[in-house]
Amino acid sequence: DTDILAAFRVTPQPGVPAEEAGAAVAAESSTGTWTTVWTDGLTSLDRYKGRCYDIEPVPGEENQFIAYVAYPLDLFEEGSVTNLFTSIVGNVFGFKALRALRLEDLRIPPAYSKTFQGPPHGIQDERDKLNKYGRPLLGCTIKPKLGLS
């Protein structure tokens, strides 16, 4: 009830141990960054970081593993599906230590899922505001480690 649980199918790059790949997924999809950020000293990252608590080989698949990751609820904004998914399924999928990555399962505590109120308006309102029709609308991942100066 205090964590969001994710199961990722992980295929590490050659030479990367499964445990290291699982830990990298947990870090990169929560508090990890490739550079030093001045805001790191403002809080204890241990409170927010994802933890790979188990890793199992996928039966019948060579060099594939299921990495089980727990994310503390404090990492996420209540009521924000966008915040939840940009963290868990954001840029971690382009992580160079992995040859392949797929989210297999996501378990959200019932109390947290009740904070999602649904969108304030529909896709038609968004298309009207943007004056964009007949094509998909795409966005990008916004993380707090970007744009600070």
From TrEMBL:
<keyword id="KW-0150">Chloroplast</keyword>
<keyword id="KW-0503">Monooxygenase</keyword>
<dbReference type="GO" id="GO:0009853">
    <property type="term" value="P:photorespiration"/>
</dbReference>
<dbReference type="InterPro" id="IPR000685">
    <property type="entry name" value="RuBisCO_lsu_C"/>
</dbReference>
<dbReference type="Pfam" id="PF02788">
    <property type="entry name" value="RuBisCO_large_N"/>
</dbReference>
<feature type="domain" description="Ribulose bisphosphate carboxylase large subunit C-terminal">
    <location>
        <begin position="122"/>
        <end position="149"/>
    </location>
</feature>
<keyword id="KW-0456">Lyase</keyword>
<dbReference type="GO" id="GO:0016984">
    <property type="term" value="F:ribulose-bisphosphate carboxylase activity"/>
</dbReference>
<keyword id="KW-0560">Oxidoreductase</keyword>
<dbReference type="Pfam" id="PF00016">
    <property type="entry name" value="RuBisCO_large"/>
</dbReference>
<keyword id="KW-0602">Photosynthesis</keyword>
<dbReference type="InterPro" id="IPR017443">
    <property type="entry name" value="RuBisCO_lsu_fd_N"/>
</dbReference>
<dbReference type="InterPro" id="IPR036422">
    <property type="entry name" value="RuBisCO_lsu_N_sf"/>
</dbReference>
<dbReference type="InterPro" id="IPR033966">
    <property type="entry name" value="RuBisCO"/>
</dbReference>
<keyword id="KW-0120">Carbon dioxide fixation</keyword>
<keyword id="KW-0460">Magnesium</keyword>
<keyword id="KW-0479">Metal-binding</keyword>
<dbReference type="InterPro" id="IPR036376">
    <property type="entry name" value="RuBisCO_lsu_C_sf"/>
</dbReference>
<dbReference type="GO" id="GO:0000287">
    <property type="term" value="F:magnesium ion binding"/>
</dbReference>
<comment type="similarity">
    <text>Belongs to the RuBisCO large chain family. Type I subfamily.</text>
</comment>
<feature type="domain" description="Ribulose bisphosphate carboxylase large subunit ferrodoxin-like N-terminal">
    <location>
        <begin position="1"/>
        <end position="112"/>
    </location>
</feature>
<keyword id="KW-0488">Methylation</keyword>
<protein>
    <recommendedName>
        <fullName>Ribulose bisphosphate carboxylase large chain</fullName>
        <ecNumber>4.1.1.39</ecNumber>
    </recommendedName>
</protein>
<keyword id="KW-0601">Photorespiration</keyword>
<comment type="subunit">
    <text>Heterohexadecamer of 8 large chains and 8 small chains; disulfide-linked. The disulfide link is formed within the large subunit homodimers.</text>
</comment>
<comment type="function">
    <text>RuBisCO catalyzes two reactions: the carboxylation of D-ribulose 1,5-bisphosphate, the primary event in carbon dioxide fixation, as well as the oxidative fragmentation of the pentose substrate in the photorespiration process. Both reactions occur simultaneously and in competition at the same active site.</text>
</comment>
<dbReference type="GO" id="GO:0009507">
    <property type="term" value="C:chloroplast"/>
</dbReference>
<dbReference type="GO" id="GO:0004497">
    <property type="term" value="F:monooxygenase activity"/>
</dbReference>
<keyword id="KW-0934">Plastid</keyword>
<dbReference type="GO" id="GO:0019253">
    <property type="term" value="P:reductive pentose-phosphate cycle"/>
</dbReference>
<keyword id="KW-0113">Calvin cycle</keyword>
